[in-house]
Design brief:
Oligomer: single chain
Low-confidence stretches: 136-141
Largest sheet: 5 strands, mixed
Helix content: 10-25%
Number of helices: 1
Strand content: 25-35%
Mean pLDDT: 75
Shape: extended
Radius of gyration: 29 Å
Structural class: mainly beta
């Protein structure tokens, strides 16, 4: 019994070590209507992945604003994601059908801002990762990887068929 417990302890320790070594945890923030603007800086060699952005309450819709350095063409700032509203009411009190949430990736360098909405609670989950420079044709030094194209409706391929009727072959004179 002691041997089994020792083996389980070793296995658990190895799994915990791998989880800590390989995990890149998401960060989550809750923004109330009275909080200050949440500002996240994405460095030039990183990108930010937003997987969840929801809103509970409020009349205005919350947005994720991104400012790129040197972008004067669009006034410097653009909205890239709107919050998914959460409505817990059911029956005749239901306001809307459930909404579908979206995800977004933001390449650095960028400044990401989320402004609070009066009377609402916002929830965001995101992760910043280092861009390893896969060389996908953007001048990263590698050759571009071909992308296979799959058609949703496959083309018709002819199949050989046999003649079910056997015809006699003429025999010489």
């Amino acid at each position: 019994m002691k041997m089994l417990a020792a083996r389980c302890l070793v296995a658990f320790t190895l799994l915990a070590a791998v989880t800590v070594a390989l995990a890149n945890p998401f960060k989550s923030k809750i923004i109330s209507g009275s909080d200050s603007v949440l500002e996240i800086i994405v460095p030039g060699d990183h990108f930010m992945k937003i997987t969840n952005f929801t809103q509970d309450g409020g009349t205005d819709r919350a947005v994720v604003e991104v400012t790129l350095p040197g972008d004067t063409e669009n006034g410097g700032t653009t909205n890239v994601l709107t919050a998914t509203r959460i409505d817990f009411s059911t029956g005749s009190n239901a306001q809307n059908f459930p909404e579908t949430g979206n995800r977004v990736w933001i390449a650095g360098p960028a400044r990401v801002r989320i402004r609070p909405v009066v009377g609402a609670k916002l929830f965001i989950s995101y992760k910043k990762e280092r861009d390893e420079g896969s060389g996908g044709g953007g001048g990263g030094g590698g050759s571009p990887t071909p992308i296979p194209i799959f058609s949703p409706t496959p083309g018709v391929t002819p199949t050989p068929t046999s003649n079910p009727f056997i015809s006699p072959t003429p025999v010489g004179p």
